[in-house]
């Protein structure tokens, strides 16, 4: 379970998160929607501690993420993260990309790490690309590679930061399919997205962000078909 | 032209010249290896948030890059004597060339690190890697690829600059050549022969560096 309590975060003078409260239950898929700059991505980075926080508390399975004594490297193994820019490691093959962290972080043997990597690459439909380098893969394939790389650490949670925003339109579908697959397998996911159909079809809850506050949250049929917040109504009508 | 070429003395001295070439190689290899290490340390000093470290790094780089290498050798050989530190010719030349190399490599590293997108480290860290693991397995291999060309140039430069060592009394290839020159007065012949040896050493070093670097560039060789 991921719990955010009165989470506040500023960049200099600008307060980007103004007291967020959110609880994500195990097995739940929560989509974060809202205009660019509303604080959605920053929120994700406060959960995996890529960003520090100024007030409030983030706990993952009861562990305070930002407490001084927390072993953040250990905690991050539970939190798979997929970025907008997929950040595949260009000097390693697909198999090596995925096997690296199991080998150096969880100290699996080379053989074991490769087996895990192969399994996850097959999982995301890249079973025939094991020995390809990222430069030989399309954007969609690289993003699926990034998902496999995160899954190889056997995370309990997956955080997606606009995972399809940098992709050519024709490649978005294959990545969303994998995300749907994960959701159907019961993975707990927090998904920052501009893909409204994904948010509607896959999420258990949708949260609308507006200038650093969580303006509206609820099941997609409620938030997306019967929005209360006027800004959300406007947002949904412009984004289609 | 009345000059008569006499190559026999050169041929007779060739074994000694080749032996001295080994000293040249030794000095260059050690200075380059140490320069690579210190250069990385200097890069981190200059990127540090601590002013003291930044100042230390910048001072080193500034002096190394903006004073003659010959003076740097003199400082290590004679200059330190003023402070009661007496280094052998060999140690002084290695130290001076290391000092110089590290200064240049620090700048090269900076370019290399800038060439690796910040997302690479972020991705590695979110997988649970420590800072050091991310550096070791993700960032540095890419930095090395980026700096490999300039690094090769630097190595060639060190080999050639080690000839300055003769002015600190080191009997490396140039020192040895000068020794035979003063005994035989076959100046042109000796220095011409030595130039050829330098050329060959530099060329072979370049080819070896290319071969050594091949594993770094396997991704580039993969077909698109």
Automatic annotation (TrEMBL), chain A:
SMART domains: AAA. GO terms for molecular function: ABC-type amino acid transporter activity; ATP binding; ATP hydrolysis activity. Keywords: Amino-acid transport, ATP-binding, Cell membrane, Membrane, Nucleotide-binding, Transport. Residues 2-236 form the ABC transporter domain. It is a peripheral membrane protein. InterPro entries: AAA+_ATPase, ABC_ATPase_HisP-typ, ABC_transporter-like_ATP-bd, ABC_transporter-like_CS, MetN_ABC_transporter-like, P-loop_NTPase. GO terms for cellular component: plasma membrane. The keyword Cell division does not apply. Transmembrane segments: none annotated. It holds the Pfam family ABC_tran. Signal peptide: none annotated. It is found in: Cell membrane. It comes from the Bacteria. Belongs to the ABC transporter superfamily. This is Glutamine transport ATP-binding protein GlnQ. The gene is glnQ_5.
From TrEMBL, chain B:
It is a multi-pass membrane protein. GO terms for cellular component: ATP-binding cassette (ABC) transporter complex. Residues 21-209 form the ABC transmembrane type-1 domain. GO terms for molecular function: L-cystine transmembrane transporter activity. It holds the Pfam family BPD_transp_1. Keywords: Amino-acid transport, Cell membrane, Membrane, Transmembrane, Transmembrane helix, Transport. InterPro entries: AA_ABC_transptr_permease_3TM, ArtM/GltK/GlnP/TcyL/YhdX-like, MetI-like, MetI-like_sf. It is found in: Cell inner membrane; Cell membrane. The chain crosses the membrane at residues 20-43, 190-213. Its main location: membrane. Belongs to the binding-protein-dependent transport system permease family. HisMQ subfamily. This is Inner membrane amino-acid ABC transporter permease protein YecS. It comes from Aquimixticola soesokkakensis. The lineage of its organism: Bacteria, Pseudomonadati, Pseudomonadota, Alphaproteobacteria, Rhodobacterales. The gene is yecS_2.
